[in-house]
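Weekly structure sync, notes
Attendees: PL (lead), two postdocs, one rotation student
Agenda item 3: pending single-chain targets
PL asked that the sequence for the first pending target be pasted directly into the notes so everyone works from the same version. It is reproduced below exactly as submitted, 152 residues in total.
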Amino acid sequence: MVIATELCALSEYRIYPGNGKLFIRRDGRPMFFGTSKAYSLTMQRKKPAKLVWTQAWRRLNKKGLTETLTKKRTRRTNKVARAVVGISLEDIRKRAAQKPEFRTAQREAALKEVKSRKAASKGKGGKGQAGQTYSSKVPKTVKRAQKGGSQR
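Predicted structure, written out during the meeting:
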């Protein structure tokens, strides 16, 4: 046999037939109250979430969820090695296997080569940088003197 029960508007407890009060609001919405305490607190405009014994407070403060909700299992992400545009996967693995001393020596040799190339290009003449002069930076807020006109 199924018994038609209502839920209390404040506490959200079940209200069985023959118990509680039915209050019709001005907008026509019915509100069921299980006890005079619930009715009184609603008339005082108390918030159910601030009353410790209500279901709203228990939901807000995560009480009584242990038996219904189990902890979600997190999946570990697996690291996958992929080839980069300029280099294949095998080359990446070879470089990772190399000793750090060998790699630093390679890096230094490459730097020396770049420096020697720059020095060679400067010796030939390169770009004409000798005749250029640079003005110091002036903040945007400071007004500069105009070249061809009177200042006001």
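Discussion points:
- The first strand starts at residue 6 and ends at 7.
- Strands lie at 6-7, 14-15, 21-24, 30-33.
Action: rotation student to compare against the earlier draft before next sync.
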